[in-house]
Write a structure and sequence with these properties.
The chain is mostly helical and 225 residues long. It has 13 helices and no strands. It is elongated.
Length: 225
Amino acid sequence: MNELLTHCGDPWWEEVFSLYAGCVSDASPLLRKLLVRERRQRLLRKSNHTSLIWAGQCLGTRPRVKQIALREKIVDRLLKLLWKAGGRFEIDNEAKALARIGGDRVRKNLLAMLMDRQATVRVRLIAAAAIEKLKDQTVLPGLVAVLKDTHDDVKLRQTVARALRTYKDQTVLPDLVAVLKDTHDDVEVRQVVAQMLLDSEKKYIAVLYTLNILFALWLSKIRGK
């Protein structure tokens, strides 16, 4: 295992770490050593959290972990980094690791991030992308609430609409139709919703309102001349 750890941070070895964690009788020693490496990086004030992210990726393989506290510690650290991320580029890797781990606690925290108006738009966007990968139907009411909020960020609402599309849940169709019918809503958001409905039993409504959107775009272009 010590030889394996010398390759931590090398992209070619990322999958090897996950495979190793899934094969051993107890992944606790590997996870513990990765956390030690991450703590050292923090003490040296390095912004690279590769060791922690890889620990999260290893947990995502559902390995046998006898020291249960290690799992909670890894999830705690990833969530803390995500909440404090601001504009850091690396947070998408931390969000992916959390999505791979899954579970009630991860789901609740990602939903809280998504719906927190005080968080940066970037953090909320990445939370939405992570929620899309969770494949957990219980997130649907939260996603729908953000989508229907016309005062929220347009790009975020588009991302949420795409996330809803991956779930292919028929129960949200009435909400999607309501967004599409609202002619005062953002055109781009309605376009994404129309694309979703074209793949559903509400296809005829999507066609009708897509024509309406195209007309609105043409009209705004004419008025802009």
